[in-house]
Hints:
This is Pyridine nucleotide-disulfide oxidoreductase. InterPro entries: Auxin_biosynth/cation_transpt, FAD/NAD-bd_sf. By secondary structure, this protein is an alpha/beta fold. It contains 10 helices and 17 strands. Strands 1, 2, 3, 4, 5, 6 and 15 form a 7-stranded mixed β-sheet that branches. A 5-stranded parallel β-sheet has the order 7-14-8-9-10, covered by helices on one side.
Amino acid sequence: MNKKIVIVGAGAAGIGMGVTLVELGIRDFLILEQKEIGHSFKNWPQETRFITPSFSSNGFGMPDLNAISVDTSPAYTLGKERLSGKDYAEYLELVAKEYHLPIFTNSSVNHVKKVKEQYILETDLGEIIADYLIFAVGEYSFPKHSFAGSEHALHYSEIDTWKQVTGNEQVVIGGNESGIDAALNLAKLGKKVSVYTNTTGLTAKEADPSIRLAPITRQRFMEFKETNQGEIKVYQKVCIANIQPNSEGYEIQTTDGRSIFSKNRPLLCTGFMNGAAILAPHLFDTTSGKFVLNAIDESTISNNAFLIGPSVRNQGVIFCYIYKFRQRFAIIAEAIAQRENVPINQTRLAYYKQQAFYLDDCANCTVDCQC
């Protein structure tokens, strides 16, 4: 099978990219999804909610923060402001159906190789040859284990519901969004929680919500502290080096030689890595620990291989939220159209720009707050 463009992944980024291609008049593409549309969102803990609110403000030139297409709104479709993972997966399924996206679910990409100017994908559907490859595999399905013995902890992504966690005293490793969310959910169940972290968004001074803790998470934390109905202790400047199980529980060793004991299995909230680094590490330069991309989010070592989604970094800007990374889809679509010398729907492209779905110059992106 030959396709001009193959998108790998049918989550928020993959569906959003597919809609953008359709809207701008590019039809020679397909989307491959290892499992089902929105699979990662469906695997969120039942209690987890979006930290960005959804609101039907599209008619006033301010699209819903969680929309992955210009003219849709999860808030309108689902009648909810704080979406669960399953809610959002339902929204993605509805969008895919509305735009008749060519998605093949339960279709794993097992290997990718570049031959001259094309990409050969070995998939469950057989061999697919593509001129352009867009990775939208996301992060949630790829938990980060960044130190020895971390496999002995229970990662945030392995939680179905916080009610499944046993024991009255819990140790959480990691103090940013997932770590504080885990601590709050556990404390709400009456558990005493100790959070160990090197740094935390709770005390970050930056205004960028990709660095500072989200307002809703901070609000939940402060409200919890005010009620005095549970216990969460946060220990900062703690770097974990190892976890070792023993007959009494778990010994957690720090890089400065200290030892922390946990009777119950520790909870690991140290984040995620992008699946493209596992699926096709040879196509991207990641020697700095991050994907090195050019101005249109293309690999610097593999022509026509692009990255979209929360791992995108460009000119120092972090695109880890949906309302951020959706602004890069049309830029890639436009670049492909120009390289192929095919017409693009300029009216829709102008509309994308008008609706803040097109950000091509990140040099002036700042979130400094003067108040």
